[in-house]
């Protein structure tokens, strides 16, 4: 059987399972057709299933089907090995969704999981990522949308504390070892071979940064909290009046979170840095807008808070620098090792952000020099 035939068979299995879930939740409902959605760097495929008309009362028009290419793969990041070679007993997506859904209404509803955990049926939260919504809005409304996303994560950090229910996010953390692993990933894939002495100096600098980051207070973090993993919906009805209801604004926009299965403990500013410095985001989040948004987050923040705004800004720069250097290494790795060259097109923008943060940060002089002469930046001329 060819790979294409296997994919078709898996899609057929997913559609049948979706119909079973529909019939259970909304008697008389069934999935009529489905189409694939654009993929990403993960081991998952997504389909949108359309329900047959006429639909029973309360049944949605569409559902999302998540098809696991390998049900044994529970985490997308191979550097997290806390579950051993066989992985966890439960799919991380399911485990984390169950926990987070008790603390926010931003997650899509999980309607069904197949017995082998290879097929999931989810609420359809639409096709409009935050990035697209910001570009459709004016500058002020776009900034407000980013602000709402920061309010959402600040509130979630305060509520989502370990309750002993076995959420996998509390079993893994961005500690000094993991920060160091990602810096090594950057040095291995993000820069071209260079002077050994300069590389050694950079490695020592980055080890010191990893130790500083590991000393920051930790909260539960989405880990991939960027403008493509946050979808914008206009709510069909006013938000539920309960603690877990998310902040709204910008003409009633409701934000929905996806790709949260890699959640773990991290500095509170990690998700902030993910949102404000990812991919093409700095084309909108200028340094001035970044400063305003960071101040907004600090004012809203209740968990993992540092002493004052100045200390928060300094820590933010280091967190953002660590993350953007990781992304430079990761995108080159995905292109070189995983055969996904499309990631190279994103590198020039990411590298511009890396150069800015290197220029603004102290104690990384060798890394700044190494990046200026050896960054693998997808073809951009080093500045």
3D structure, described in words:
With 383 residues, the protein is α+β, with helices and mostly antiparallel strands. The protein has two domains: 3-123; 130-374, Aminoglycoside 3'-phosphotransferase, Chain: A, domain 2 (Alpha-Beta Complex), CATH 3.90.1200. It is 44% helix and 12% strand. The chain contains eleven helices and nine strands. The chain has helices at residues 3-25, 92-100, 130-136, 139-159, 176-189, 196-214, 269-277, 287-300, 309-336, 347-360, 365-374; strands at 31-36, 44-51, 62-68, 110-113, 119-123, 218-221, 230-233, 254-257, 264-267. The protein has a five-stranded antiparallel beta sheet. The longest helix is centred in the C-terminal third of the chain and has 28 residues, at 309-336. The radius of gyration is 21 Å and the shape is globular.
What is the residue-mean pLDDT, rounded to a whole number? 90
Name the quaternary structure: single chain
The ordered string of helix (H) and strand (E) elements is HEEEHEEHHHHEEEEHHHHH
> How far apart lie the N and C ends?
50 Å
Quickly name the level 1 CATH class of the largest domain. Answer: Alpha Beta
Percent range for helical residues?
A: 40-55%
What would the principal axes of the Cα set say about the shape?
globular
CATH superfamily of the largest domain: Aminoglycoside phosphotransferase (APH), C-terminal lobe
User: Judging by the overall fold, what is the CATH architecture of the largest domain?
Assistant: Alpha-Beta Complex
In spatial order, strands of the major sheet run 1-2-3-5-4
Structural class: alpha+beta
């Amino acid at each position: 059987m060819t790979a294409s035939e296997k994919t078709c068979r898996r899609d057929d299995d997913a559609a049948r399972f979706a119909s079973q879930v529909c019939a259970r939740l909304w008697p008389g409902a069934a999935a009529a057709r489905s189409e694939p959605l654009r993929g990403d760097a993960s081991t998952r495929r997504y389909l949108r299933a359309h329900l047959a008309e006429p639909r029973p009362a309360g049944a949605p028009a569409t559902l999302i089907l998540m098809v696991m290419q390998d049900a044994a793969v529970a985490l997308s990041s191979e550097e997290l090995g806390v579950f051993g070679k066989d992985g966890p007993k439960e799919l991380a997506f399911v485990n984390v969704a169950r926990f987070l859904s008790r603390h926010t209404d931003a997650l899509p509803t999980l309607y069904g999981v197949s017995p082998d955990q290879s097929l999931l049926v989810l609420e359809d939260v639409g096709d409009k990522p935050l990035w697209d919504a910001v570009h459709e809005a004016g500058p002020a409304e776009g900034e407000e949308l980013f602000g709402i996303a920061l309010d959402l994560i600040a509130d979630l950090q305060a509520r989502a504390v370990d309750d002993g229910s076995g959420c996998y996010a509390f079993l893994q953390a961005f500690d000094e070892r993991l920060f160091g692993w990602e810096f090594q990933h950057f040095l291995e894939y993000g820069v071209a071979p260079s002077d050994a002495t300069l590389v050694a100096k950079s490695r020592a600098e980055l080890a010191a940064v990893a130790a500083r980051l590991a000393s920051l207070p930790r909260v539960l973090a989405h880990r991939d909290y960027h403008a493509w993993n946050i979808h914008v919906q206009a709510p069909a009805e006013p938000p539920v009046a309960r603690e877990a209801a998310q902040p709204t604004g910008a003409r009633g926009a409701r934000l929905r979170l996806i790709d949260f299965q890699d959640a773990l403990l991290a500095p509170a500013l990690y998700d902030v840095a993910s949102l404000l410095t990812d991919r093409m985001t700095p084309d909108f989040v200028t340094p001035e807008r970044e400063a305003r948004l960071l101040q907004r987050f600090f004012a809203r923040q209740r968990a993992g808070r540092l002493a004052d705004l100045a200390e928060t800004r300094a820590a933010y720069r280091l967190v953002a620098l660590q993350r953007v250097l990781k992304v430079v290494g990761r995108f080159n790795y995905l292109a070189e090792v995983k055969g996904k060259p499309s990631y190279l097109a994103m590198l020039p923008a990411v590298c511009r952000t890396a150069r800015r943060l290197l220029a603004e940060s102290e104690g990384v002089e060798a890394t700044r020099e190494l990046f200026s002469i050896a960054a693998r930046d997808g073809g951009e001329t080093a500045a």
